Structure formats: structure tokens, C-alpha cells
Amino acid sequence: MPRANLANMLICNRPRIWYLAVTGQETVRGAMGNLQELQRRIEVDRIQGAIFDFRKLDGYDPMQDWIGFLKGLAINVPHGLPLAWLAHSHGANAAQRLARAAQKSGALSQFCMNWEAALMTVGLPQKFKDPLPGLLTPPDDDVLFLD
User: What is the pTM of this model?
Assistant: First the structure.
């Protein structure tokens, strides 16, 4: 399935929190576009946090060089910016790598396996509804694979 953004929006105005949900097979080109969008949201929209939702992502193109993207993420994320990387177990390793790359820049970056943890990471109360309802953690998702 080709890569697409399912959602790209502010989910809260105070604090300004950006939400991005990705589906399909992620590519370096698509990820770089999202990194540019993050930079624009920081500079123009003055966001104060972001949730990146990979629960509908099919995977990553393994034939592409992701090192440059990870370095760009580490360089371009502001110190102290809260970032939540949301994924179920099938996307957990990639989301954890992204969270660690953002942590290298000093971002308050956290890997999350559910919507409630993502809200806590960016400082939002639990009253904010999941933009992708029905995406509960699968029953077999109680094991987290770390690399």
C-alpha cells in the first residue's frame, strides 16, 4: 500500500499540539516531507508538542538509507519539545529509534503504545479523543520487542 498521511492537524490550540498519522509503506522521501512539516509547524504555527501515530503504518522500505533522516531528526528538533511516537508492536522498533533520535537533540521524546500515554507525553488531559477511533492495542500486543 502506498504511503499517505491519514491525519495532519492541530488537535489542541492551548497548548498547540500537532497530530500526524501515517499509513502504508513509509519511505525516506515521505519521512523527510514530514520532517519539513514538523519544522514548519514549529516555526510558523509555534507548536508546543507533537504526536506521531504509526498504528496504521504497514512498515518501512528496508532498501532505503534511513541514517540521514535520523540525523536530520536529531539535528532539527528543538530542545525540550514533547514528542510522542505512537505504535503497536509491529511498528515499535522503528518508533523507538525515532524517539531516541529526537532525544539526542534534547526533545522530551517518548515511545508510546497507547493513546493515553501519548497524551501524557505531550501534556494533554485524557479528555482528548483518539483521532483514529477503534485502534485499540491488539490482544497479542503485550510483548515489546527491543533491538
Answer: 0.85
